[in-house]
Design a protein that fits this description.
32% of the residues lie in helices and 33% in strands. By secondary structure, it is of the alpha/beta class.
């Protein structure tokens, strides 16, 4: 069952648990006004004991550098708890932001949330993050 965490006029964050993964679905804009809400929502889930995340960006209509920055910030927090992070359902427009920033290879990006949750999480897959190729 999907539970809402954040409701804002231009963005909503909800989550569900699938195969050991906490799937955080972001719907709307992730920008200077809303990025901190996404961060706080994930931190709340970490504090509640969730450590393995799929960040579903399939419904993100716009993301700026603040949005990308919040993904990096929550990655660090998840890593501190020996958790895992996959990113799923990324549109071409959002994927381009990862490309331009040089962070595409640092994340496990899956074409769908279903694919991202197909295998159960393993401990510490962020131990050597970032996984930048060079």
């Amino acid at each position: 069952m999907r539970a809402n965490i954040v409701r804002h006029e231009s963005m909503m964050v909800s989550y569900t648990v699938v195969n050991g993964w906490t799937v955080v679905e972001v719907d709307g804009d992730v920008d200077a006004r809303t990025a901190s809400m996404v961060r706080e929502a994930v931190i709340k889930l970490i504090d509640e004991g969730h450590h393995h995340f799929v960040l579903d960006l399939g419904f993100v209509t716009f993301m700026d550098s603040m949005g990308l920055g919040v993904i990096v910030a929550i990655t660090k927090r998840i890593r501190e708890h020996e958790g895992s992070l996959r990113i799923g359902s990324v549109s071409g427009r959002i994927l381009r932001i990862f490309d331009l920033s040089g962070l595409r290879d640092a994340y496990e990006i899956c074409p769908s949330t279903e694919e991202a949750t197909r295998s159960a999480p393993s401990l510490g897959n962020l131990a050597h993050w970032p996984h930048l190729s060079g």
